[in-house]
Amino acid sequence: MTVAETSAAETSAAETSDDAFAGIAAQDVALATLRRALEEDRLASAYLFEGPSGVGKGRTALALARAVLGEAAWPRVSAGKHPDVRTFGPRDEGARNIKVAFLREEILPYAEFAPFEGSAAFLIFPEVDVSFPQHHAEAANAILKTLEEPKRGVHFVLLSERPERLLPTIRSRCQRLRFRRLPDAVLEDVLAREGIDDAGVRAAAIALADGRADRALHLAEEGTAATLLELALRVDDAVSQARPGLLVDVAEELAKSDELALALDTVQLFYRDVAAAAAGLADDRLRFRHAAAEVRARAKVGARVASERVALVQQALADLEANANKQVTLDALVHRMRAA
Q1: pLDDT (tens digit, 9 = 90+) per residue, 113-124?
Q2: In what order do the strands lie in the sheet containing 85-87?
Q3: Could you tell me the pTM of the whole model?
Q4: pLDDT in tens, 252-271
Q5: Strand pairing of 85-87 and 121-125?
Q6: For 124, phi and psi rounded to 5 degrees?
Q7: Alpha carbon of 118 to those of 7, 29, 88, 154: distances in Å?
Q8: For residues 125 and 131, is the Cβ–Cβ distance under 8 A?
Q9: Rounded CA gap, 239 and 241, in Å?
């Protein structure tokens, strides 16, 4: 997802305002830091915006450029057509990392000669932990050298969900700002403004969104939230019964999911609620409060077992991200959940 697409998902575009950050919700600490830097004319040469996707990082990066370059530049900045604001990701479709050749032939020369029109230039890198992971050492070290020797007026804005994957030296060269998950009330407002009129659909989407506006919109528009919860319930049915055939079936069903990570996230969130319900948390504190009766009916397993199942799903997600065999991982997951 591009910065522009992410920005649209996070919240609707703010109207022209003296405050370029107007309309960015629930990120008061990060925005206060940036406003203070602008007021004192002490903008850092490199920022690392950390936090989940869909919470305002991309929108804030563009708003920072807007604040510096001015309202006259904003139409081109927001359209991705301003010469002093560039978003860089892998050039080749389907690639995950930024290739060293692309970095040296296009990105680094741009950083050397910018700004071209205004008083400053902004290089924005979405998913920088994917573009420059530690194991992609040559590219990571090349970008590090540029961060260590910044040119006046050139600002790097790195967006990251997993900053621990970056070289420690890259992290240390940036001013780090943390972006938090969005409250349910903000997600409710985003979905309502996007024309999602069904309150039940909004509630189901918000339950699975994990505080991310992009995920909430995707779930609401595709209508998949209810389906994912039903899958989580089938997983729980399978691991709660002493029938090996059910475990095999549900592992195969998970493997066939078009959005496996989201399906496993749903299972993980479901068991968090089961653990919370078993510990006596009120219905209005549950993530799946619209399905609180189902959660409470399954809380007999106890908080300890439910918490162990959360940890097992987390480990399976990590294994899959490390390219473990999908079917083997899922088979092992459901059997371990059964044994918990």
Answers
A1: 889 998 899 999
A2: 85-87, 121-125, 154-160, 46-50, 175-178
A3: 0.82
A4: 999 998 889 999 999 999 99
A5: parallel
A6: -110, 130
A7: 23, 28, 19, 11
A8: yes
A9: 6
